[in-house]
Structures are given as C-alpha cells and as structure tokens.
Predict the structure.
Amino acid sequence: MKKLFIILSLVCYWLTCCAPSVTELATTNPEAVIAKKDELLAGKSVSEETLKALVNAYNTLGSAALKAENYNEAEKQFKESLVLDNKNKKAKYGLAMIEGLRLFKKGNKSALWDSLEKFGKATYFDPTKGEPYYWMGRAYEKKDDGDFELIVEAYENALKGNLTPELKTEVENCLATIKIRQKTHESFWK
C-alpha cells in the first residue's frame, strides 16, 4: 500500500510539474484558455497570472485575425482583452490598426486623414513596431503622392521599427520607388 501511495504521489507531482501552465497555454493554445474562461474566472480571487493569460490569449487570437485581415474577428478578440484589462496596450494597438486599415481602404481624403490619426495612435501604443509607419506612408501616397517628404519620413520610420521580413522588403521597395519619383520631380522643376 505504501508503494502504491508513493507511485501515485510521483505521478501527481509529475503531472503538476510537467503540465503546461495557463500562461504557456495562452500562447500555444489560446482557444483552450478562452474555452475555460468561465472556469478560470469562477473563483473568488483570480490570480494575476490567470488574468494575464486570458488577456494574452485574446490578444494572440486578435493578432492572428488581424494578420489574416479578418478585422471583425480581430476587433472582437481585442475588445474581449480590454474587458479584462482596459489598459492593455497590445489590444489598443490592434484596435487602432484595425480602424486605420478600414479608413485607409475607404480611400477618400477625409478617411485617409483619419487613418493617419489612427496609425499615429498605434505608434503611441507600441512605438517599437514599424507597421503603422508603413501604412502612414501608404496613406500619404494615396492622399497626395507629391508630398515626398512626409512619405519618405514615414517609410524611413517604418524601417527603424520591428517589421516582418516580407514587410521590410515591401517598405524598402516603396522607399526606393518614392525616392526615384522625388528625384525625377525635383529635376523636372529645376
């Protein structure tokens, strides 16, 4: 009997030590964490770790939906994150990007000005990212493709921030193209 107790104790210890924590699951399997949201929040005192894990799970799903250009789903996930942590900068960044991208796609001058404001707001929430600056450059080009200084500045700022390799290549190409156009324009007016 004593041997069985030792074996069961070891198995229980192994399961608790080797099972992924809720924090790890929020990154690797956010759907599972969210599916257990009610259970995780049911206790009288919810740990800070559990709350952060749920927020992280919502943000992970929101970021994936944003990357897939599923703005409605991304918006839903980021808003759920903000219900749990109304100061969460990752969720606020995502919502600002969604609003900016929606306005950019409208394409009229008023919407483009508003998109610039939203992309600027995104840089406030995460100044390390280059993507909002890329979209600022695109908005300036779409609004007034002759405003070379603002376009170049936006693309250069994008390159200073964190970008995926694909987006970095895109920004470099946009910057090179706009600089060629700028030189052509300047030499024409000399």
